[in-house]
Amino acid sequence: MTGDNVMNTGELNVIIPVFNKEKYLRRCVDSVLAQSYAPSRIILVDDGSTDGSPELCDKLADEYDTVEAIHQKNAGASAARNTGISAADGDFLGFIDADDWADSDMYEKLIKALSAEGREKIPAAQLMNRQYSEDGTLVLYTGSDKESEYLIKTEDFYEQLIMHTGDSSMCTKVFRGDFVRRFKFAEGEKNEDFELLLRMLPEMGEGILTLDTPGYNIELSGSSVTRGRYDQSLYESMMKNAFTALRVAREKYPEHISQAERFTYVQSLDFMLHIPIDRMTADNSFYKRIVRYLRCEKKNIKKNRYLTKKQRDYLLLLLESPVAVRKTHRVIMNLRGVRKD
Length: 341
Known about the structure:
Elements: E1 12-18, H1 22-33, E2 41-47, H2 53-63, E3 67-72, H3 77-87, E4 92-95, E5 101-102, H4 106-114, E6 124-132, E7 138-141, E8 149-153, H5 154-162, E9 173-176, H6 177-180, H7 192-200, E10 207-219, H8 232-251, H9 257-274, H10 285-296, H11 298-303, H12 309-320, H13 322-340
Parallel strand pairs: 1-2, 1-4, 2-3, 6-10
Antiparallel strand pairs: 4-9, 5-10, 6-7, 6-9, 8-10
Helix pairs in contact: 1-2, 7-8, 8-9, 9-12, 10-12, 12-13
């Protein structure tokens, strides 16, 4: 069912993967229950939580007819989302992370836009987000209050993703159910939203409908998978996805190859600036592969017009003397920290 003043154009299912999110889960679920376009099913997938999340999932399922709880052994967020997709049967499908929450009209806006006449072949719609610190301070606000709608063509959306100007989150989007059920998240991998969107792109037809207004809310916390301390497996997934994006450019969008190459360089730079110095060793095969890759790309790095001067300078320094440059970089950062104090 939907709210009294909202036209029902199809059933909405919302999938919420849960792993040790007892502190935040009720807030998240309450925000979905409060939607003006009410979901017919809210699917909680407890991914082997070790806190009170499993019991809370069951309690919420007992309290609300539309809430369902599924429990599985810990297998990661991607596996939990795939479990939710397998269980879902809605005409529209959305995802929310258990420590985030949605504005009450988020899905109404997205589904209303996606259901307008002439948009039957558009498989997904997205809106913008707000990001908050743990104390509730607003730290980032994307989009505007104009609520304009526009279609981003598939090729342009690809360009936005690799140039870091587009939104790769699955949670800010709603998908047609028959479209998203054709895909699965890559299990055992991180940065999985970006990877899935890359695979979806060739099947997205006209592109993705975009609303230039925020509606999804993110709480930045050290416990989040993608927001915490250094995790080499995350960087390995990010680099794997960068090379996949480069292959997509070569196969589908050859005019964007230089931008895709820039994407691999910037992802490499991010890794090289964050890996702990004591892990920059000969027995770290992933680190050695990235250094070799950058050295092989030296000529292309020098001429890539999409890199900033600062990015290019850092890359050229790092490919020559990575450990020495990192030690110098650490000293500079420490000095800046002292000045800020």
